[in-house]
Predict the 3D structure of the following.
Amino acid sequence: MPFIPKNLLVIAMLFFLFISCSQEPIEPTTADLQFKKQQSQADELDNSALEGLFYPKKITKDVSYGAHPEEKFDIYLPAGRSYLKTKVLIVLHGGGWTNGDKSGMENFVEQLWHDNPNHAIVNMNYVLADASNPAFPNQFQNIRAVIAFLTNNNVHFKIKPEFALLGNSSGGHLSLMYDYVYDLNDQVKFVSTTVGPTDFTDPYYQNMPNFEELMELLVDENVYPNIEENLDVLSPAHNTSHSSSPTIMFYGENDPIVPYANAITLYQELQESGVPTSFHTYEGGHNNWSAEDNNHKHQQLNAFIQQYLPIE
């Protein structure tokens, strides 16, 4: 038998051991099989479902959308949110364009979120009008800034940049005007107004004491010259068109602040423009309605949300 050096024998043994091991299949463990199953299931999920596993319900207050101290909003983000599906309800407070704060809408927002838990909600402030800051068009531009901010940060917030505007009193006026005039990209899918002014050409306003002084405070005349003769440019009822978004309206028949005729005028103009409209009236005045009427309002609003801003 020929002599084989010891070192060559060791090398040969290692070689055959390597070949033998490489050819034998490795049996997966139970943990391996479970991991593989989870990976397969994950591959079948879309991005929205995956995001829902990692993003819980969250509320963030006083997010700045501009340099002015009043340019802030609160954002309510649902669990399971996704930039593929989570649409946004934007709420605007009232206060005659010169007063008010988003804090006054918190009870409404909580009820709204309870009824629509899969939507995101933004409760926004806008810069209140004073001698240095006219309301129009600045407050319309505040809405535009919020929508642009949310659109540019939709992946961060995990929201889909489709919106509804829900305004109360002066906030209702702002919501209507933004949708009918400024929403050039059709990001607003419906608008809700609760006792919002719609027609400044109504004799009611012309007969108000100090109405001209109020307009001087509210209006930037560099943008709207001779406003006393052109009040229709700031009146939502005179700016409807076939491209206006579906509109839901809530008004009091005995409102001492916003005449009920404003509601009738807007409704008629929307009908003539072929805009889907849901119009609801109550016996009370300026949003001081009975509990039963308020419950009815929330039911109608929720149905409108499901129809025109559904979560798919």
